[in-house]
Write a structure and sequence with these properties.
- The protein contains 14 helices and 6 strands.
- Helix 3 runs parallel beside helix 6 and helix 12 crosses helix 13 (about 265-285).
- It has helices at about 15-30, 60-65, 70-85, 85-95, 110, 115-125, 155-160, 170-175, 185-200, 210-225, 240-245, 255-265, 265-285, 300, and strands spanning about 5, 35, 50, 100-105, 140, 205.
- It has about 325 residues and is α/β, with parallel strands linked by helices.
- The longest helix has 20 residues, at about 265-285.
Amino acid sequence: MPFAQLVIGPPGSGKSTYCDGMHQFLSAIGRKCSIVNLDPANDSTSYPCALDIRSLVTLEEIMSDEGLGPNGGVLYALEELEHNKEWLEEGLKGLGEDYVLFDCPGQVEAFTHHSSLRNVFWRIQKLGAMLQMDLPHLNVLTKIDKLSSYGPLPFNLDFYTEVQDLSYILPHLAAENPVMRHAKFEGLNNAVVELVEDFGLVGFETLAVEDKRSMMTLLQAIDRAGGYAFGGAEGANDTVWQVAMREGMPGMTVGDVQERWIDRKEDFDELERQEREAEAKAHETPSLTEDGGEEDSDMEEAGLVNAPDSGINVVRRT
């Protein structure tokens, strides 16, 4: 397990959906990937699970046997994992050189003042999170494709991704919710703004998990942060997205994201619908090469039949 991602975030932020989407994307570009579920409350994973904490202990058993609630049960399960670190170590050894995604619990206590999960990762590869440990850390605004359904934003998207002068947003908070005009909330919001700006390390990437360009852009940022170097197994195939990742094809800028998912979302949705229809027709009536064989197109495999020329020359190896 030379490289891994520790996926953390509050409940409902899309951690498991991200793991599923990233697993599919990594598989498509030829990077062997495995997912480890460390959330005992996650009883219905949509992804193939290489290791699952629920095979060691389940949240339902803990709540029944120990009389704990959901949050206490999750922390108890992590303590059980810490006491049985060998189970996880042996399982990870079986994954070989796979790129590993760790789907973690959503309870903030597991990362702020509870040490079990931290100790587990120190034991394995000295992995960690932003402040308690020594790993690169990326913040991600997930579900960016849903943003347009919440009404217009007071500022352009880069205001939020680059975390610019947050004091400008305080009047908008008060306008959106009268409760925020109360003196105690005003003081709390000001304190949070000062904390974030003084800290100076907060910025966000964006992600629409079903969009290939969005996923590619995020993975490029993760690879840069983590120092990932392409292994020997990668590059054996040469689909469009593999070439894009190897050659460092430019991803989406914040301006591109704003245009795609906020300013012109309906236009792009319609364009992609037309491309899918064209792709379906192309598969129904495959074109023939001069020797009578069916044309094998990397563009079709990547779902980019009518996409503009990317400037990438794809040469198939034999």
